[in-house]
Amino acid sequence: MAAIESFSATHPGDPEPGDLIEIFRPAYQHWALYLGDGYVINVTPVGKAGAGWQGADGPLMQLLKDVVGSDTYHINNKYDGTYAPLPVEEIIRRAEYLIDQEVSYDLLSNNCEHFVTLLRYGEGVSSQANRAIGAIGFVTAAAGAFSLLGLLRSRSRERQY
């Protein structure tokens, strides 16, 4: 692995091996795990998009600057207060074992954030997915309520005639 150069002032911090890197894309956050020497491991859906985003390209070891591109990022070990990080050597060993292996990908239950938190903590979690699931549940409940109201109004009109 080659040493990382400071590629932009908009890319803050000096990540340490095992750190979670949150990358701010236009509509979502992408997650990677810092391996050291400028490299990260990350997983993306097959073709990076598609119906349901099922399946995944194997976890890739890439330069952080290539994964970030023109977006911004920061180090975000946000679950350290909830989960104890595994020893750095274990995190890196697990990550290196998975490079180019086939892994499953599901936007809501096994995404890039789940992948890196599983490596760091031994527990796959994603607040981004939890928010999406909550929003889906809210929309479903609201649609059900509106349907029920429509049905009740319809029956009420039938009784009047």
From TrEMBL:
Residues 20-128 form the LRAT domain. Gene3D superfamilies: endopeptidase domain like (from Nostoc punctiforme). Pfam families: LRAT (PF04970). Keywords: Hydrolase, Lipid metabolism, Membrane, Transferase, Transmembrane, Transmembrane helix. This is Phospholipid-metabolizing enzyme A-C1. The chain crosses the membrane at residues 132-152. It comes from the Eukaryota. GO terms for cellular component: cytoplasm. GO terms for molecular function: N-acyltransferase activity; phospholipase A1 activity; phospholipase A2 activity. Belongs to the H-rev107 family. InterPro entries: H-rev107_PLA/AT, LRAT_dom. One of its GO terms (biological process) is N-acylphosphatidylethanolamine metabolic process. PROSITE patterns: LRAT.
